[in-house]
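User: For documentation purposes, I need each entry recorded in a consistent format: the amino acid sequence on its own, followed directly by the corresponding structure tokens. There are two entries in this batch. Please keep commentary to a minimum and don't merge the entries.

Assistant: Recorded as requested. Entry 1:
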Amino acid sequence: MAISAPGDGQRVATGWSGPVVVEVAHGATVHDGRLGVVCPSSGYEHHTTFSAPSGRVEVEVAPLEAPATDCTATAELDPTAGAATAVEPVSDPVGDPVDAPAQGPAAAGPSASVGFSAWHRVAFTDARISPVFYPTVRDGFADTAELVFHLSAPTDVVLLAYDVARDRVVTERRAVLDAGPATWAWDGGKGNRRRASLPTGRYLLAAVAIDPVSGHSVAVIGSTEIARRTITRRIVRSVPAVQAERSAHGACATGVGEARASLVCRGTRTSYAELSAVVRVPRDARLRAVGSRNEKPSVDERPGRVLHDLERLSPRRARVSLRIDGRRALVVDELYVEWSKRVQQRPVAPVPGRAGIVAGEVTEGPDGWLVELAPRG
């Protein structure tokens, strides 16, 4: 006889209740036997009897609710009915030997056993993901993408960020997670380097584990988007608000009117006249350029240069300057600085939702991770 299911060394899922398949060689009409399943590490124990009139029987057992690695199923047949009984010779009254039933314990029937184990299946349920986030803005809102899921059993998990446009994994992390809810917050960086430069676009976040029962990888995959928006603003300061300075040497002059300033330089090449102003800018602003709106008097055809300069004095203050040198005259209407600041648009659904969860498979091959999404529809 033999036990064909579960197989020797097989892994079954917790909650498994059989059947245990006992194969009995054909011979007698009916085979009666006993089946025992025990898992010492979990305290599981189940015993039952069975009959196999056809030589094969499937026996249901009580569910294995707890995981265990030391389970054993043992089947044993009763001694076959009608089998020859062992005898030993004795003497009759006249001295002739005769056969008589042997005295002693009855012979045990055939038996078989297999070892197997019970494991929790690994599955990802109740999955959600952030639809869009802005990793360059650190104001506490939508700064990271969150992949949220519920894990059916404790297991080792690989967390991946996958660049769809460039078909490559940009972040890979490993973690040991307990059963229950879990959240992976991705800041859009490469590996452990925060604020790494990743282009805008679509990315996949995936959590991958190996199911110990089937031996196959299982995964949850969500789609998110890195979004950045840059707004450039021009701050204009009118000329009456600026201070005019002249070099100690040379013949440059500066005159300030109600709406504009006239700078006239008649000196050597090292002579200059300058207008400057201190302007306020946002703390995180990027200073891009300084410029002016000016005109050269038509009567002035002499050569010369107009120079602009921008200097950051503090996180919120900058100095803008305009200088003319050489043989030149200039009428300045306004002096300004251009700055830009990344600002975030409030996403339509800032809370992670189920809309971004996609079907597919994640497997690890010799060349790295492979992400295959299921066709839509």
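Entry 2:
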Amino acid sequence: MSRSESATVRLDTPADLAEVLPYLLGYEPRTSLVAAIFHDGRFTCAARLDLPPAESAWFDFAAETARAITDEFDGQNAPTPDFVVLYLLDEPAPGQSGRTIAVRLAPLAGLLRAAFTHHRVTVSLTLCISANQWWDMTHDITPGPGTSMPDTTPGPATVAFTVAGKLPAPSEYTLTTTFAPLTGRAGDTLRTALDTATSTHRRAAVRPATAHTLLEQAATTFADPATAALPPADTVTLLHALNDRLIRDWAMSLPDTHTNAAARRLFTYLATAAVAPYEALGCAPLTLLAVSAWYDDDQPLARLALRRACRLDSAARLPALLREAFNLPISVQQLKELARAGRPTD
């Protein structure tokens, strides 16, 4: 869940709530359920989940979502939400309209309302957003033509956030492309290097001392903002080395020994270097990128990087634990102390 900031913005209508969604999360989500949670009439945090593609999974998804969100507050001994606002987001296929999506998701909206009601949490509003339009599906099970989102003229919610110093939220696509696997000639070059390393078993020869030295050198190289890549052989060595838990934990403290900007550029590059069919190698650098992004208070990028890391390796404990930690009021200093604990003295 992402926590609220101190800025006060008044939300009076469904249009306000539809317009303000990207500011609640820090980015414009896609194919998602977002639950905006309110206590004492004030927004406190938001939870985002992927929409299940199969309609047969909707009943279980609704029940599990309501249970998980209410359990989150019970586990922290926090009061149960007064109410939630639910957002259902998806984009139509070519040739379809946004209303097609609203009609398809209307039954899911009903299941979610029933599930939250079962846990004694009121759903005050349910909005579907698609194709730059929104529908109020709180009571209407047959969505009408929809209402257009603000286009060139910002609505009152956007104006209020702008006055409060909040920048326009980027799209989820814009953020995830920063760490998406490379394609084209650069991707082909790395794929060949990864194939070679796999066939010759060179990855087994990486020693911790060698990996530490190479990581230090790479962070120094990426201190220059003009640096875009490492030699393919070094890249492959680091991707395999970071699969070692101790080496990965050691790398978490690179922002301390260099600069966070250099470490963040390095981790971003290594995440993009995990090209198909070696995407699983991206779990560790994505986890490290999330930590670096959190240091910069770039919470949307940190959360999206961790989400991708958990998808690549569902058994990986650190990205899963960090996702839980980022739902708590953890400070950057606490996170840095955690990172330093993973860097033993040589």
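Summary note for entry 2:
The chain has a mean pLDDT of 85.
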